[in-house]
Amino acid sequence: MRIEAYSQVNSIYKADTVKKSKETKRAGVSDQVVISSAGKDYQAAKAAIAKQPDIRTDLTESIKSRVDNGSYQVSGNDFANKVLEKYQSMMLYNE
Question: Cα separations (Å) of 38 from 42, 50, 85?
Answer without folding.
Answer: 6, 18, 36
